[in-house]
Write the structure tokens for this entry.
Amino acid sequence: MHLYTTYGTNNLPQAIRFYDAIFAVLEQPRLPGWTENRAGWGTNPEAGTGFWVCTPFDGNAASAGNGTMLAFPARSAEQVRQFHAAGLRHGGADEGKPGIRDYYAPDFYVAYLRDPDGNKLSCFYYHYDPAKDPGD
């Protein structure tokens, strides 16, 4: 399946700074096709997925969906921590610090953020072993 995801933004320059920071951590490059009202990151859209931010096409204000969240996979718990820290440094809000949760499997390491427009994001790592990576 080939797909892309789009979140609306009310401040594209601020959104670009935020997403440049978190996608740099995840090693996801900018995609071609940027315009004055949209920007994207990820792999070649013809061969994979992409993530875009844009001003809403209908001209109304962008708003976050209750219960809506995008989750990005990481290669390590450290990368999850870097994702969370980069997001906080670039205008994001904490929705859950990096770590394990009682309601998930003990090897599922995750962190949660809100982007500057209030959209919820997650970064996760499967197969976490606290004996190999005690965290912060």
Observations:
- The two ends are 37 Å apart (CA to CA).
- The chain has a mean pLDDT of 91.
